[in-house]
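User: Biotin-independent malonate decarboxylase subunit beta. Structure?
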Amino acid sequence: MNHASLLNRESFAELGARARAQALLDPGSFRELAGPFDRLASPWLERQGVVPQADDGVVVAKGRIDGQPAVILAIEGAFQGGSLGEVGGAKIAGALELAAQDNRRGVPTRAAILFETGGVRLQEANLGLAAIADIHAAIVDLRRYQPVVGVIAGQVGCFGGMSIAAGLCSYLVVTREARLGLNGPAVIEQEAGIAEYDSRDRPFIWSFTGGEQRIATGLADRYVEDDSDAIRATVQALLAEGVPATHRSGRYAHYLQRLSGYDPARQPEPETVRAIYAPGAKP
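Assistant: Predicted structure:
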């Protein structure tokens, strides 16, 4: 990308959740549901000394993408690291469930989920886990009718139970700054030690969980620049492709076969992972 392009582009990763949703929807079609003025804040955070947020860190927006009905679920990474609790999780699951109902009634509503999350909110524990399970079920229901597109742009990434939600999406879009993994770097270091995973070694972390690696291993579908226009165009194109013949989560046997021959006692390298997942490779 040349210098002029860099100066003219708008970083998607630097936008807040509400601005990201507006950037994807057709101009003038943005309508927020269950927004901050509805005061759907978590009832649990204040009891634990945490200041709640009026929208619980989740923006639900209805509108149109390329003229077609769409719902955007955007997670605010700046609030509690994008962690999901009872209220925010219910907003996402409920919106996806209503989109599926729309399709059963003949209204072809598609969905995009903008991931910026560390997973479940520890202060809400099982309530958050139950909400994330509802999100998983709602994605699987909706994707029978219309594509569900996930976007991971940075800066928090996508971890924990929401990484499973990303894996369930019909299509997944990542940037160079994106990270995707079941456990976050700090959690791995805490449990396995710094010799196993140094959470301060940024090049090492991105080499395993960054956008380039996830594309190379087939765990994401599109790799784009951190540019609002580019991401919007990519989401539009993927929605226009329709529901894939087989979702990535339906190819679990393929991935299990790839991993079956690998010795977990060996310290993996990024190149090892790419070789395992490469088409036609022997595990």
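The chain has a mean pLDDT of 93. Strands lie at 31-33, 58-65, 68-75, 110-115, 148-152, 171-175, 222-224.
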